[in-house]
Structures are given as structure tokens and as C-alpha cells.
């Protein structure tokens, strides 16, 4: 196979990356490397890769933000049939890699996965036309994930988000908006929302635990507002244990599209990219990208390679 690895610049000197590349080249596969230096490089490299002749796979080397940037840019460039995608997990959280069984502690195994397993087609979500492969979060929780100190994340992993959330407890405020989806409408005040193509974000927090990567739909989770005296406990449970801990409070649905409208700005985290908006439309593009996964628990039919 001929692979093109789009590598986050911070990982260029990582000995594990070099060892993984050497090992896969030793397996008689070609590995071309493009290293990012400034903002926009991953997008540009991904677009260029979709136009390269004879390329078999594009591998995103970095964290969840890099994965989404590479996959999104390639998706919008309309990749040719036969071009597949892989992940070399080099971030702090590596939520997409963790949830799909891509080895995060063995980079050689992660890179070899691209050459030894068939790619399976997964859905791609679009939020106001911007692609995402994993999960979109909104509300105070998305501010916590965006504003958590990177060094704290390196030291504490996913628990860093809980620490940040507790430290900023006084800033917790609800948002208000109207949600619409297929056979669904809900309006009110809420503390957090998640739209999942995948299941987890924020260092392993399962916000949409029933989501499937290939079901042609997106999962919506809304955490309605609670009395001020209960906010601390509820929010801590969500950040530490995921949506299952607040099952009796959450509002959920599954739909091929989801719309949101509000008169006030909402903080939204689009697979690591922070944005503010007052309205959005999320749509699902079914089985739009073939990706090499380590396990298929997030697929409707795990036994079928696609």
C-alpha cells in the first residue's frame, strides 16, 4: 500500500512515530510524510492527497482535532473511490481512536492497522456545512473542554475537564433554545448538548453512548437546566461518568437532521474546534468515508467489513 501520513508538527520528533513508519516501510509499504507547521496545513495536505495518483490511504497523525481536520478536508474534496483513511493517535484525549479500538499506546500497531484491516464506511456529520466525524458538544461543557489547560490534560487526562469544570462552577449558566428533528421538538433551558456520530468526547466521556458510526443518523443528547443547588452535582456527574449518569434527566432522540434556534449565542465545540452560533442545522451523510478501525462496536453490523 501507499500511505500518506499527515503529521501534526508537534509530533515530528517523536521517536515512536519514526519507529512506526520504519516498521511499516519494513513491511514493504510506502509511507509518505507531510508535517504541519502552521494553521491550515493539515487541510491543504489533505486536499492535495485526495488528488494524488496511486495513493491508497490518508492517515491523520495527531489528536482529535487533527483527525477531524484531515477527514473533513478530504471529505469536502470528494475523495476518489478506493482511497481510505486511518488514524495515528497522538493527542491527549484521542477520543475517536479510543472508541474505535485504534491502539493509542502502540503507534506501530495503529499504523499497521491501515495496511492489515479492511476499511469500513462510516457516516460523516455536517454542522452548518462543516464536517465532523465524532461529536459536537454545546453549552457550558463545551467551554470547559475548549478552555481546559493543555498541560493539565497531559497530566490528568480526561479528569482535567472535571477539575476545570469544578474550578469554574460559578460560571455555569444555562442556555435556551429550540431543537427540532424528525418527529421531535423540544424548547427550553439547558446546560449541555451533544450531537454524536461517535460516542465520546472530552477524554472518554460517553455523551452519546448509543451512537453508531454507520446508522445514517445522529444522536442528540440534551441536559435540561436543573435548580441552581443541583447544578454542581449534575454537571460533575456528566463530566466524570458521561450521559448514563444523568439518564433520568436527559432528553434524547436520533435523527438524520437536527436544527437549533436561539436568540443568544451558544458555545459549540465541533470535534475540537470552538465556535459560537445562534442557529445550526446538523445533517448526516451516511457511509461517506472508508476508515480503518480497530474494533467495530460502534457499527450497526460489526461482522460486516463494508
TrEMBL record:
Biological process according to GO: phospholipid biosynthetic process
One annotated Gene Ontology cellular component of this protein: plasma membrane
Cofactor: Mg(2+)
DAGKc domain mapped to chain residues: 1-131
Superkingdom per UniProt: Bacteria
GO molecular function terms attached to this record: ATP binding; kinase activity; metal ion binding
InterPro entries membership: ATP-NAD_kinase_N, Diacylglycerol/lipid_kinase, Diacylglycerol_kinase_cat_dom, Lipid_Phosphate_FormReg, NAD/diacylglycerol_kinase_sf, YegS/DAGK_C
Keywords: ATP-binding, Kinase, Lipid biosynthesis, Lipid metabolism, Magnesium, Metal-binding, Nucleotide-binding, Phospholipid biosynthesis, Phospholipid metabolism, Transferase
Cross-referenced NCBIfam families: PRK13054.1, YegS/Rv2252/BmrU family lipid kinase
Protein's name according to its UniProt entry: Lipid kinase YegS
Gene source species: Kaistia hirudinis
Amino acid at each position: 500500500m501507499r500511505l500518506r501520513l499527515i503529521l501534526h508538527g508537534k509530533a515530528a520528533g517523536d521517536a515512536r512515530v519514526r519507529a512506526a513508519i520504519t516498521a511499516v516501510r519494513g513491511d514493504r509499504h510506502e509511507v509518505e510524510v507531510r508535517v504541519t507547521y502552521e494553521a491550515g496545513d493539515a487541510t491543504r495536505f489533505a486536499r492535495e492527497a485526495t488528488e494524488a495518483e496511486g495513493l491508497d490511504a490518508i492517515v491523520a497523525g495527531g489528536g482529535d482535532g487533527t483527525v477531524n481536520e484531515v477527514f473533513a478536508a478530504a471529505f469536502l474534496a470528494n475523495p476518489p473511490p478506493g482511497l481510505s483513511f486511518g488514524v495515528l493517535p497522538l493527542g491527549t484525549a484521542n477520543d475517536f481512536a479510543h472508541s474505535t479500538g485504534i491502539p493509542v499506546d502502540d503507534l506501530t500497531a495503529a499504523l499497521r492497522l491501515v495496511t492489515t484491516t479492511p476499511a469500513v464506511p462510516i457516516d460523516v456529520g455536517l454542522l452548518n456545512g462543516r464536517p465532523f466525524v465524532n461529536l459536537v458538544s454545546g453549552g457550558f461543557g463545551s467551554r470547559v473542554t475548549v478552555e481546559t489547560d493543555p498541560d493539565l490534560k497531559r497530566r490528568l487526562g480526561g479528569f482535567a475537564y472535571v477539575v476545570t469544570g469544578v474550578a469554574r462552577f460559578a460560571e455555569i449558566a444555562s442556555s435556551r433554545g429550540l431543537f427540532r428533528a424528525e418527529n421531535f421538538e423540544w424548547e427550553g433551558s439547558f446546560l449541555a448538548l451533544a450531537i454524536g456520530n461517535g460516542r465520546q468526547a472530552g477524554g472518554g466521556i460517553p455523551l452519546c453512548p448509543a451512537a453508531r458510526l454507520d446508522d445514517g443518523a445522529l444522536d442528540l443528547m440534551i441536559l435540561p437546566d436543573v435548580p441552581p443547588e443541583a447544578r454542581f452535582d449534575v454537571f460533575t456527574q456528566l463530566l466524570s461518568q458521561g450521559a448514563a449518569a444523568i439518564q433520568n434527566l436527559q432528553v434524547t432522540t436520533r435523527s438524520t437532521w437536527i436544527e437549533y434556534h436561539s436568540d443568544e449565542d451558544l458555545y459549540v465545540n465541533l470535534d475540537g474546534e470552538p465556535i459560537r452560533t445562534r442557529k445550526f442545522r446538523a445533517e448526516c451523510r451516511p457511509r461517506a468515508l472508508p476508515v480503518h478501525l480497530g474494533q467495530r462496536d460502534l457499527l450497526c453490523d460489526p461482522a460486516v467489513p463494508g
